Amino acid sequence: MINITFPDGSVRQYEAGVTSLDIAKSISEGLARNVLASKVNDKVTELYRPINEDATVQLLTWNDEEGKHAFWHTSAHLLAAAIEELYPGVKFGIGPSIETGFYYDIDFMDYQVSSEDFPKIEKKMQELVKAKTPITRREVTKAEALDFFTKKGDEYKLELISALEDGTISFYESGKFTDLCRGPHLVDFSPIKAVKLINLAGAYWRGDEHRKQLTRVYAVSFPKKSELDEYLVLLEEAKKRDHRKIGKELGLFMFSETVGKGLPIWLPKGTDLRLRLQNFLTKIQKQYGYQQVITPHIGSKQLYETSGHWDHYGADSFQPITTPEEGEVYLLKPMNCPHHCMIYKNEPHSYKDLPLRYAEFGTVYRYEQSGELHGLTRVRSFTQDDAHIFCRPDQVKEEFIKVMEIIQTIFKALSFENFEAQISLRDPENKTKYVGSDEVWEKAERAIIEACQEKGLPAKVEYGEAAFYGPKLDFMVKDAIGRRWQLGTIQVDYNLPERFQLEYINKDNQKERPVMIHRAPFGSMERFVAVLIEHTGGKFPLWLTPDQFIILPVSEKYIDQAKEMHRKLESMDLRGVIDERSEKIGRKIRDAELKRIPYMIIMGEKEINEGTLSIRRQGEGDLGAMTPEQFAERINQEIENVM
Length: 643
Hints:
By secondary structure, this protein is of the alpha+beta class. It is 36% helix and 27% strand.
């Protein structure tokens, strides 16, 4: 007999060789019907794998992230199996689960496939689901794997196999379909009750634009049709909220092929919004003792070799810039931290000087492949709300907590109420991709974990997601329609101070290394604004929106009075515009609604004679008459309620 320990701490005994599915059946038939995969000793695995010794077991359903991803990973195999039947001879790249479904990269050879083929593919997938053919796992030698895919003529799988070690390779088979995969998967396809192919996109093999472009088929699946229906409604809502569409409608930003791909240009209203965000954070930072700095847009290659960024990110940078002087090489700045290290190193420091907090809205440049560019969320030039804190080891936790407070203040002001935290640690099985000793990593990881515990912030731990120089805490925000975005990050770094030989004189008059904390509450101004647009649908908080009001004269003869009122309201620190067009008032109101301007002020003879304003609130309708002073008080009160 073996002991099985469950997440609640309870223990049951079973015979050795019991499967997770057997365990689920022993608890309830309902659970057995809904369980998708199992987590045995923290490793997600199939339900049919035998358990031969004492273990901790978590039975995963659709409500668990790991269960959902096993479901979508299996759905990717279902998609590939259907496509192989419909288009014999196609070749397959990779087919992972992603945050909202799954995709498969496919070389369709000479077949012409478009979205018009989606119903045919979905129908074939449904046929395979109904067949309930078991999905079985088979471990193979490297020679067997190479032989199998050589006969199939699939150079993509052969390339993947060539990088694997013998003894670590497995196939998953269902009916006629066989795929190279680590798993895990469902027992069969039958739980996949609803599937929908979403779109096609080009994707270079292995992300290399010099390799062949494959077709990436995006799809989603659910255990119930009703859940698919709900998802499709959200998908339509997401299209309406697309920041590229709304950004164009509101005149916030633009792109120009002539200027260059992935290089956003901020238009006047977008610049106003962005500067307001920056001023908001600058004011908070001042309260926490930050000093503002400005660094160049380029740096010498030597700077990034010293920091280690060249070795880790050189391939993602723009090509080095050479000058007429022999051996002089520069890079467009891919990150701000090495520059801030040099600011710290500019003068000697005592333990009494620390912490030092340098903040910069620093524009950086990273080369993204053109196929990966997407509005403001994936660009080649972006501005980080960057700051680096240099502190003593005994100050790390306190400084970390203060940064958490700043991030939570920002989320509150912008109504990001639904968020969770993720602690990203080293991969304990593969430490070669990280710099620094085990001792400093353990210190840094412990500081983050203790800070979260002290603030009562629940945080999910993810191994292998740390930066190469240190662990981090990321904030995952759910927007108004339930999508998750990574916004805000804090990273503890014992390594850059070592690489740059940064020092301070401690209490014992000895030289000591400071600890460096990297933090960016917004992440980047571009991505944050994109998420904010989609979260609000372009209806920004009143304190942030470029125009708080629009004056709508009922005819041209009231424009002079409207201008006078505009000056008066602006003298009260309110922001707005006048619609001077010779349109009917109904049209002006509709257009103001489309521009998402919060308040409309209608001015006609009655309002002018009475010295009042006729106010409409977007989405609420008429609010009645107010004096300018009452209107200003209403706006200020509305802002105070959220700040």
